């Protein structure tokens, strides 16, 4: 409990320092209407919350992130396990992974609109696209890192190939899977803004785009701060999940 309290206090001190640096930079260094200090941005955020606008944009973006992230994870984890476990599968699918993961999600916006239209499907596809390859690579690396001594010990005790996979390989791979999902979640937040620029009616990306058109600088910074805080919260959640469910398999997590 004491360590957790110290960690929380450290986070609060870090954010306080961040906003202090922001205040000094905006007040004393930049002094520009295009770079407002924190207090006007906070006041604008309060207004948007009271009107229910900010919550609506946040929930819309989080819904798309969750859908695309879960879809990418559901596809990436089995493929990563197969690539890491079976050499023929690796030889067949590794070129696909290495080819597509170097094509950025932003470059796929036009393709996603052509394939899925301007509805929710195109945005979810972009999020899934930007997450799936990170998870595949991390999962495959985890399978390859399983200690052979553990596998031989299980085989000596009479375990079948399925039991070795289920009771030895999969638990040992879990830290890599969760770490890959943690990195993929960061990619989801990076991509959501670009995804929502395509004919979207709501979301933080749409909020940024509209604020740019009408030069509502405070709204731009409200959206940026919201994205940063949501991403920070998501990353802390994954760290907790890694420690809770995978820490005993990898003490360094």
Automatic annotation (TrEMBL):
Family matches, as Pfam families: BPD_transp_1
Subcellular location: Cell membrane
Annotated PROSITE patterns: ABC_TM1 (PS50928)
Transmembrane regions listed in the UniProt entry: 7-30, 65-87, 99-118, 124-147, 159-178, 220-238
Keyword Cell membrane set for record: yes
Every ABC transmembrane type-1 domain range: 58-242
Membership in a protein family: Belongs to the binding-protein-dependent transport system permease family.
Source organism superkingdom: Bacteria
SUPFAM superfamilies the UniProt entry points to: MetI-like
Protein name, per record: ABC transmembrane type-1 domain-containing protein
Keyword flag Methyltransferase: no
Topological relation to the membrane, as annotated: Multi-pass membrane protein
Keywords per UniProt: Cell membrane, Membrane, Transmembrane, Transmembrane helix, Transport
């Amino acid at each position: 409990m004491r360590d957790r309290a110290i960690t929380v206090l450290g986070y609060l001190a870090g954010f306080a320092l961040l906003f202090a640096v922001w205040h000094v930079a905006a007040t004393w260094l930049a002094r520009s209407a295009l770079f407002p200090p924190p207090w006007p941005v906070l006041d604008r955020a309060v207004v948007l919350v009271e009107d229910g606008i900010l919550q609506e944009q946040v929930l819309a973006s989080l819904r798309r992130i969750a859908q695309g992230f879960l879809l990418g994870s559901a596809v990436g984890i089995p493929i990563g396990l197969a690539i890491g476990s079976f050499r023929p599968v690796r030889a067949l699918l590794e070129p696909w992974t290495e080819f597509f993961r170097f094509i950025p999600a932003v470059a796929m916006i036009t393709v996603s609109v052509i394939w899925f239209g301007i509805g929710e499907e195109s945005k979810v596809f972009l999020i899934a696209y930007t997450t799936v390859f990170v998870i595949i690579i991390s999962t495959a690396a985890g399978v390859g890192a399983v200690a052979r001594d553990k596998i031989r010990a299980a085989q000596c005790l009479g375990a079948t190939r399925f039991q070795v996979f289920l009771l030895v390989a999969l638990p040992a791979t879990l830290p890599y899977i969760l770490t890959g999902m943690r990195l993929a979640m960061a990619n989801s937040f990076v991509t959501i803004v670009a995804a929502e620029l395509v004919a979207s009616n709501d979301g933080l990306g749409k909020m940024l785009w509209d604020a740019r058109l009408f030069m509502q600088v405070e709204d731009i910074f409200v959206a940026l701060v919201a994205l940063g805080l949501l991403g920070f919260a998501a990353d802390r959640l994954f760290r907790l999940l890694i420690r809770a469910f995978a820490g005993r398999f990898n003490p360094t997590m």
